Amino acid sequence: MDLLAAMRLFTTAVDAGSFSEAGRRLGLTPSSVSRQIGGLESHLSARLLHRTTRRLALTEAGRLFDRRARHILAEAADATRAVAELDATPRGTLKVNLPVAFGTLQIAPLLPRFLAETPGVDLDLTFSDEFVDVIDGGYDVVLRIGALKDSSLIARKLADNRRIIYGAPAYLARHGAPERPEDLADHQCLLFKYQPGEAQVWRLSRPEGMVEVAVSGPIRANNSTTLTEAAVQGAGLAMLSTWLVGSHVREGRLVPLFTEYQTTPTGAQSGIFAVYPPTRQAAPKVRAFIDFLGRHIPNPPPWEADALPG
């Protein structure tokens, strides 16, 4: 029995919901589809589908086989594509997932140049701050900021996600600029919401040691753009990524504080990564995109010049 062909037929029948619709999609008669799935069940010595006049329903064995079959079919397609593309010119659709603010501010302006350099590639972009499953989502590359979970995925670090404390001139004029890290405890701080109810501690470190300051303030949000705008309007001090604030600092709307320190909030990690499945590693379009980002996001990254003047 050709198991790959049987898996394709079986998953098509599950998606179609009936043998007649599966047959229409595959160019087979309903009886042929039924006969081949019956042969697969005999081969496996297990019933995979409950058949009714209206629909097909997966048995417990069927659900297990369906899940594993889809994974195997995807791996087989990736293996075929990897061999075909090993020495090929970059081409095809590159499916990329990006964080909303970082992707909009720092990656989107680079994309016309990437497309000019790789004319055989077109881009399918999804901007989202949700944690996505790279493989289940069918992504070629996912850009992630923060901690990476242990997995079989390949990750290339593009840059540090450096954070600095910023305040608007109006806020600093009203409340004064903090002179020591410990003074932050007496200021209105705008906080990123990592975990519900989690106490916020800002850590400021330099070679002489680290200071931890419990901070509080009027706004707690899970969106860094919101906190940036609130800081610009003078609502408080905010610890913000340098890639987010360049224009505000350049035009005088935000002032950096404690730039001699490395600063991190509770629960935060410091990296910006390009993540991709090992099955995509050999694809020329993936290599071209990752290498392009590596060339255009050097160390230190270009956005720090504006975010840390002088």
From TrEMBL:
InterPro entries: LysR-type_TF_proteobact-type, LysR_HTH_N, LysR_subst-bd, WH-like_DNA-bd_sf, WH_DNA-bd_sf. Residues 1-59 form the HTH lysR-type domain. The keyword Nucleotidyltransferase does not apply. It holds the Pfam family HTH_1. GO terms for biological process: DNA-templated transcription. It comes from the Bacteria. One of its GO terms (molecular function) is sequence-specific DNA binding. Keywords: DNA-binding, Transcription, Transcription regulation. Belongs to the LysR transcriptional regulatory family. This is DNA-binding transcriptional regulator, LysR family. It comes from Roseospirillum parvum.
